[in-house]
Design goal:
By secondary structure, the protein is of the alpha/beta class. It is 34% helix and 19% strand. The chain contains 13 helices and 18 strands.
């Protein structure tokens, strides 16, 4: 008899409770917002699940004047604020806190890295972490170069012991254009091999993003239809209800295209459009993703004017708690934003993929701030059935089949099919076959950082971007950004906060098509 206990099929069964090697987790940017909101709660939750190595320490590298004890208290407060469901008291917390150490140094002080090396050797002896080091750069990108260089000067890029390893996680944004991304890759290559480098994009840790491969390649009903013979078009929507939330200074240098499209949206697009990899190994998957990026047609100046739309939100009404709305300021009124800023908070693109599978199929991407709903969804719209059979029955309600993959929130997927409406007449209406992670599996959906940190400890780079992948994405996006500087900017603001973006975005779509708006 089969075991009826529900498990998460997307979790690798042979590694669910594997014993990970000892590890020292060295965190740069230890007093920053990302550490408090995401990284430390992820690490603590991994401990609660029994997934961290038995011998494990965290070394926080920062310039503020703190002690081990005062920093542990800061982390405890962060857990209570940002992960209140986790027990930040008692034995489990005490065990976690005892593994945390604070190392004070400026990021540009090579002496501080030499002292870090000495301290890690002490922890090898006192806590048995066996010379394995996982460095995590969670600082602003301006600091990436000096951290990488100083790690190399202190020889921390080398394994602590003969049989140990040294790895580096680098947060996004990985460059601001093709030139800066290439420079950063070159800087990394001076001190680390590509196998040591893990460029993190938290979207790739989301269950539904990982499930795209399973949905496509483990279900025979989809893959034979996954091509230009049967697919009419594809849409990817990345929508956020929030405005700047104090990030105006950063966003003025970024815009939605650098912040969301070059990384998150293109990562999803490559998984949707890629060919079946020869294996599920890191390089086999990433090889196919790079091929997709290189197949996307480059944009000329005329193409940018024709196939892209920019937007910036003005005042409006945005979602609040319990179905209510509240007034929202315009982008130009946000803290840290220039009075006449022309930075885009919305962008839409019509991509063309010049390969055998997708030739002629429009690939649409839109991303925006201050949308009516926080959602990331993929729409696969199949071609309509021939207008022959049902037209004779005076039935004009037959709609194309649509597959919607929900990446966040309410992770899952739904397939719309035509069904006869009960009654004496032949009426066909779309109905939805719906799958939701939350109701289909007993296993809770964990934060994406947990999966990615575990994979880095395992040495599995499948869900991390490779150097050529990053540069291929920037090679596509950088000419668009450059062209926008030469083209006249739309009159901003051109959409209200709480709406689905500028009306001009509809013009990107072919006749008879409309943007899929998450419900």
């Amino acid at each position: 008899m089969l075991d009826e206990k529900k498990i998460d099929p997307c979790e690798e069964q042979d590694t669910r409770r594997e014993v990970l090697p000892p590890c020292a987790f060295v965190l740069f940017g230890a007093t920053g917002d990302l550490t408090r909101r995401k990284i430390v709660p992820a690490l603590f939750d991994l401990q609660l699940q029994g997934l961290l190595p038995e011998k494990f320490v965290i070394v926080a590298f920062a310039r503020r004047d703190k002690t081990d004890e005062s920093f542990r208290e800061d982390l405890q407060a962060a857990i209570k604020e940002f992960a209140p469901k986790l027990p930040a008291e008692g034995d489990e917390w005490n065990k976690f806190a005892a593994s945390v150490f604070y190392h004070r140094s400026n990021l540009d002080d090579v002496g501080g890295y030499n002292r870090l090396s000495d301290r890690l050797k002490e922890l090898d002896n006192s806590h048995g972490v066996a010379g394995n080091r996982l460095f995590y750069i969670a600082t602003p990108p301006d600091n990436f170069g000096e951290i990488i260089e100083n790690l190399g000067k202190a020889r921390l890029n080398e394994p602590g012991l003969e049989s140990s390893w040294s790895r580096l996680i680098v947060e996004k944004p990985f460059g601001t254009d093709l030139g800066t991304a290439h420079e950063l890759n070159a800087s990394l290559a001076n001190y680390f091999t590509e196998k040591q480098i893990y460029r993190i994009d938290h979207y790739l840790g989301k269950e539904t993003v990982q499930n795209i491969l399973v949905l496509r390649f483990a279900n025979q009903i989809f893959e034979p239809l996954w091509n230009n013979k049967y697919v009419n078009h594809i849409q990817i929507t990345v929508a956020e209800t929030l405005g700047m939330e104090g990030r105006g200074n950063y966003f003025e240098q970024s815009g939605i295209t650098r912040d969301m499209v070059q990384n998150h949206a293109l990562q999803v697009l490559t998984l949707i459009a890629m060919e079946p990899p020869v294996a599920l190994s890191a390089d086999a998957v990433r090889d196919e993703k790079v091929k997709v990026l290189k197949s996307l047609r480059p944009f000329s100046l005329d193409d940018v004017a024709k196939y892209t739309v920019r937007g910036q939100y003005g005042k409006g009404e945005v979602p609040a708690k319990e179905g209510e709305t509240e007034k929202a300021a315009s982008y130009r009124e946000e803290e840290g934003v220039a009075e006449g800023s022309d930075v885009e908070t919305y962008a839409a693109f019509h991509f063309h993929c010049d390969n055998w599978r997708w030739s002629g199929v429009p690939l649409y991407v839109q991303a925006g701030k201050r949308m009516p709903k926080r959602a990331t969804e993929v729409l696969i719209q199949f071609k309509s059935v021939p207008d022959v059979l049902f037209a004779k029955l005076d039935c004009n309600t037959v709609q194309p089949n649509r597959l919607v993959i929900r990446i966040q929130p309410d992770e899952g997927a739904s397939l719309e099919i035509g069904s006869k409406v009960p009654g004496p007449e032949m009426r066909v209406e779309p109905v939805r076959l719906d799958f939701k992670y939350g109701s289909s599996f007993d296993t809770p959906i964990r934060d994406s950082y947990q999966r990615l940190i575990l994979d880095a400890m395992r040495g599995d780079a499948s869900l991390f971007a490779r150097n050529d992948e990053v540069e291929a994405a920037w090679a596509l996006i950088t000419p668009i950004l450059d062209a926008w500087r030469d083209l006249s900017c739309p009159i901003f603001p051109n959409y209200a906060a709480g709406s689905w973006g500028p009306t001009a975005a509809q013009d990107l779509l072919q006749s008879g098509e409309a943007w899929h708006l998450p419900k």
